[in-house]
Write a structure and sequence with these properties.
The structure holds 2 protein chains of 2 kinds. By secondary structure, chain A is mostly helical. Chain A has 15 helices and 4 strands. In chain A, strand 2 and strand 3 form a beta hairpin. The chains are: A mainly alpha, B alpha/beta.
Chain lengths: 337, 367
């Protein structure tokens, strides 16, 4: 698959085995294995069946991480997704309660999410100088506001008919939740597109230098619009699965999801400054974070303490490349002398 | 060279993770002294003991609405007292936030831990159904206290006081303080708290009576059980309605915030509602110096105790949660399970208790 520049994948220099082993992603794999051993060490209840049963709620959040990684690679951010999840879930529940067939409910969730994402995308591509952080902060407040008005004074909506949602929250063989497979499919698609297609490579080009990408013929604004819209669609999908576990929506639904998604991506080595990182890292780090949360939950650790630990880990993960680069530079200087 | 440095750093990070993980664990143990998470620590030890084949204690879990809520903590204290005295392990598991979403994760974790019973104060009536059905399918006995979950998600519900009794009591108090006529407002917690909404609906229902026709409910404000927001909402009420006579706050956080605002301003607006005696003592008095002439509450320690007795009775198979069953709850006496009117059953602790200047000194020491 040749890129527009004529450079083909075959021309990319091959990496040495040592370098592959030392990359952040393989470190995350080690960390993942380590956390699983750690989990089994601290609690006899840390078993595959239990972890898989506790996982779905967090897996729903990982749907957000996939397009969020694209945005981070672009050097942008979307903090309105938590609110989009809330609005999509609210609308899906409302439609479900009118007795509409389940396929309509699914389409509603996805359509509302897509519409929210599209709105973000249109604002940000029509007015290209606006900072995404501020625009999506605005739409975040807006979407949540709309959801709260829709929810009315009660502040929550509950499903009267949970049949459809029960179906999608089922498990294969009573063990692996459906959401796991859906996530897997999307994860593969998103990873391949980002790593192996012209579209994906353009993400890195735009994230590294938007102007240069524009002048070399990358349709920057079109691609940004696509990514923001897909972000919304995935938020709709997240809402759908979340509703399947909560049988309803309320004003706090999706609270903080945007930050969890960003944390997963950044911990996976995707730089928020743009142009760096691979999606596989984000996916592994998502599972690392989920397993750590489940393990610490099983020993009934104070939930606030768990959040503190996750915070420290995140800062360490961001700090590492910086520190190693600094040390490397110092060494070089010392060697020159 | 660079690669070596990188690898060393990464290894250091791994060790750091390990240290943090274990350190966190140790910190948890360190907390044991100040009773907040101590029980979980005990539970861990219990688990270890079980491995050695020493202890086969049954485990009762209690899930409050959130950490740092004094009212919830009293309930937990009551629960622990009874359950431990009866020889059970207790796991207290606070959710990350005061949301149903966070409680959902907590319940899933408790299912993994294979506890024998879960007693929870729910943040949302319906949102926990999927998880609690999982729990019941796994053989865990589920009951709730303070704020209920829907009938399909529970065996039974420990109701601190009948919704109708609370509505009647509070309405009568508002009528008395307003001298039978004028404007009054409600300061509630969050707009989706099941118990708050049930009481407010009950008050609105009772207000339809001819006796209360001259009273006008101008607004239901929501302070979200946050002191600052409750304070802001109280001030907003005072500004919006200059001829307001009474504020009724059926939430401990709200009444405390409102009492301070009214007393500091020397406002003539009178306050009543549901509050903790220890927090409200300085505001309770008949004269104009004090903002709250009297208020009500049940004993949260007793709510927790009854929750524990119900959990134990469910675990031991003494009751199943069906209407008409009776059981003895230690020194609280004999209780009968009654129909809750929502398709499920409940156990009513008793009528709300009145706190006024004559007894507040005595009660403020207790809770």
């Amino acid at each position: 698959m040749a890129g527009k520049s004529g450079r083909t994948i075959a021309h990319v220099p091959e990496k040495s085995v040592k370098k592959t082993l030392l990359c952040w992603e393989s470190m995350l794999v080690v960390l993942f294995i380590f956390i699983n051993i750690f989990g089994q060490g601290i609690s006899p209840n840390y078993q595959a069946s239990n972890v898989l049963r506790e996982m779905p709620r967090y897996l729903a959040e990982m749907f957000l991480m996939l397009p969020m990684a694209y945005l981070l690679v672009l050097g942008e951010i979307d903090i309105s997704v938590g609110a989009t999840v809330c609005l999509s879930a609210t609308m899906a529940c409302m439609v479900c309660n009118t007795g509409a067939p389940f396929i309509v409910v699914i389409l509603t969730a996805l359509a509302v999410g897509t519409a929210c994402g599209l709105l973000n995308g249109i604002i940000l591509t029509k007015f290209t100088e606006l900072p995404p952080m501020i625009v999506t902060l605005g739409t975040q407040i807006m979407f949540r506001g709309i959801a709260e008005i829709t929810l009315g004074s009660g502040g929550s909506v509950s499903l009267q008919n949970t049949e459809g949602f029960r179906a999608i929250s089922g498990r294969v063989g009573g063990l692996i939740p459906y959401v796991f497979f859906v996530l897997l499919i999307f994860a593969v698609i998103f990873t391949v597109v980002l790593a192996k297609t012209t579209f994906g490579r353009s993400m890195y080009a735009i994230g590294t230098n938007r102007q240069a990408a524009y002048y070399s013929g990358v349709p920057v604004q079109k691609y940004r619009l696509i990514v923001y819209t897909v972000m919304g669609t995935m938020a709709g999908l997240c809402a759908l699965f979340l509703t399947a576990y909560l049988y309803g929506a309320n004003t706090t639904t999706g609270n903080g999801f945007e930050m969890d998604a960003i944390a997963m991506a950044v911990f996976g080595g995707i730089a928020s400054t743009g142009g760096k990182g691979r999606l596989i890292g984000g996916i592994i780090s998502g599972f690392v974070i989920i397993c750590l949360r489940v393990a610490l939950g099983l020993i009934n650790m104070n939930p606030q303490l768990i959040l503190i630990i996750l915070g420290i880990l995140l800062i360490l993960a961001v700090m590492l490349p910086n520190v190693s680069a600094q040390i490397g530079q110092m060494r070089k200087k010392a060697m020159k002398k | 060279m660079k690669k070596k440095v990188l690898s060393v750093l990464l290894c250091a990070a791994m060790v750091a993770t390990l240290a943090i993980g274990c350190g966190g664990n140790g910190g948890d143990g360190g907390n044991a002294g100040d009773d907040k998470q101590s029980t979980s620590d005990d539970a861990n030890k219990g688990g270890d003991d079980a491995d050695k084949g020493g202890s086969d204690k049954k485990v009762l879990a209690v899930v409050p609405k959130s950490a740092g809520n004094p009212y919830n903590e009293r309930e937990v204290a009551g629960f622990e007292e009874v359950a431990k005295a009866a020889g059970y392990e207790v796991v207290v598991k606070y959710p990350e936030q005061a949301t149903a979403d966070a409680q959902q994760s907590v319940i899933q974790s408790l299912i993994s831990q294979d506890v024998d019973a879960i007693c929870l104060a729910a943040n949302d009536e319906n949102a926990l159904q999927a998880s609690l059905e999982d729990a019941m399918a796994a053989g865990i006995k589920v009951c709730c206290m303070d704020s209920k979950v829907n009938a399909a998600s529970r065996a039974t519900f420990v109701n601190q006081a009948g919704t109708k009794e609370i509505g009647e009591t509070l309405m009568e108090a508002v009528y008395d303080l307003a001298d039978g006529e004028g404007k009054w407002a409600i300061l509630s917690a969050t707009s989706q708290a099941a118990n708050q909404n049930a009481w407010i609906d009950a008050m609105k229902e009772i207000m339809k009576d001819e006796k209360y026709s001259k009273l006008e409910l101008v607004e239901v404000a929501y302070g979200d059980d946050e002191p600052q927001k409750s304070t802001d909402q109280t001030q907003a009420l005072l500004e919006k309605y200059s001829d307001l006579k009474v504020i009724c706050a059926p939430t401990t956080v709200g009444i405390n915030a409102a009492a301070k605002v009214l007393q500091d301003k020397g406002s003539s607006v009178k306050l009543t509602g549901l509050g903790l005696p220890s927090e409200m003592a300085e505001y309770i008095g008949e004269d104009d110096e004090h903002s709250c002439p009297y208020m009500y509450l049940w004993n949260p320690i007793d709510v927790g105790k009854l929750g524990a007795y119900v959990s134990i009775a469910l675990v031991e198979g003494d009751i199943t949660g069906a209407e008409g069953e009776t059981f003895t709850a230690g020194d609280l006496g004999e209780y009968t399970i009654v129909d809750a009117g929502d398709g499920g059953t409940e156990i009513i602790l008793g009528a709300p208790f009145k706190f006024d200047p004559s007894n507040i000194e005595e009660w403020k020491e207790i809770y």
